[in-house]
Amino acid sequence: xxxxxxxxxxxxxxxxxxxxxxxxxxxxxxxxxxxxxxxxxxxxxxxxxxxxxxxxxxxxxxxxxxxxxxxxxxxxxxxxxxxxxxxxxxxxxxxxxxxxxxxxxxxxxxxxxxxxxxxxxxxxxxxxxxxxxxxxxxxxxxxxxxxxxxxxxxxxxxxxxxxxxxxxxxxxxxxxxxxxxxxxxxxxxxxxxxxxxxxxxxx
Length: 203
Known about the structure:
61% of the residues lie in helices and 0% in strands. It has two domains: 153 residues, Four Helix Bundle (Hemerythrin (Met), subunit A), CATH 1.20.120.450; 39 residues, no CATH class. It contains eight helices and no strands. Helix 3 crosses helix 4, helix 3 runs parallel beside helix 5 and helix 3 runs antiparallel to helix 6.
């Protein structure tokens, strides 16, 4: 997806998320999300730390510096999510909103500067110019994961089309030999998928 379109869609996704959680209560923040072992607070903290990480990496690139999104690696990421998950609903909402705004500001700076030093990978497998695409996926998928009423039917056509291609690219690695044959038969209109058909974990 073109970067400008991804930014436009992500700005709208940020606003939808913020509107959804504006009236969040402490009780709801502690409620289980749709993700195993994660509460609503875990998901919101993850979204905030993800935005913060994008901002750190892109701000570093603007200075010509290589800055990792999670300087302490996966362990720091997980620890930050766990420690932040039990905060009050007010703190969670403010964190998500503030980090959204900071990332949007860094995107504006990056666009105006022409996305300089995009070769600085900072431990990631994607260029800085792909940040809006990556963030869009995080917001749309995890907004659903909150379990607060946001459903796939609300995803934009542009996002669904882009995400479908991305998901299908990785589908073969999530299937065993028999499942691959079943999917090919289904997609070519030969046989329906079995009722108990499942695929491997997406990641």
